[in-house]
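Appendix B. Raw example, untouched.
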Amino acid sequence: MQHRHVAHDYCQTTEKGHGRSEIRRCWVITDEVSLHYLASPKWPSLRAIAMVVGERQVGDKITTAVRDYISSLPGPAKTMLRAVRRHWGIENNLHRVLDIAFREDKSRVRVGHAAENLSIVRRIALNLLKRKSVKVGIRVKRLMAAWGQAYPLKVQGV
């Protein structure tokens, strides 16, 4: 690692479950002198640079992913690792819901701005469906809105 001679903070987490083991290691540089050399007009509020190495083992197969981050938060490695984990958790959860309930990955719309526009419409629909407290999944709520007469008005707040 090239940063071993630079002041940094380090944190490691290990999680096991669902037939896999994951180790995440995080190194964070917050030293102003070190960051000065990396400063750029594009990053006026740069306070930290982080590297997260994730190692995942499922059975005998081990995969490693290295990700670099820039941040305006000068937090320690533990805080940075938690923030990165939450970000990907939110991102993965949103993608999963859009893919399962709206079959977003199966969409073949490619002309002009149609794909981007449909993505926005799906997110609006998802937010409307999440507002209502019916204790069923988004996919079922979507079907209820399509088939019912009263539920679509309820979703719209009418």
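End of appendix B.
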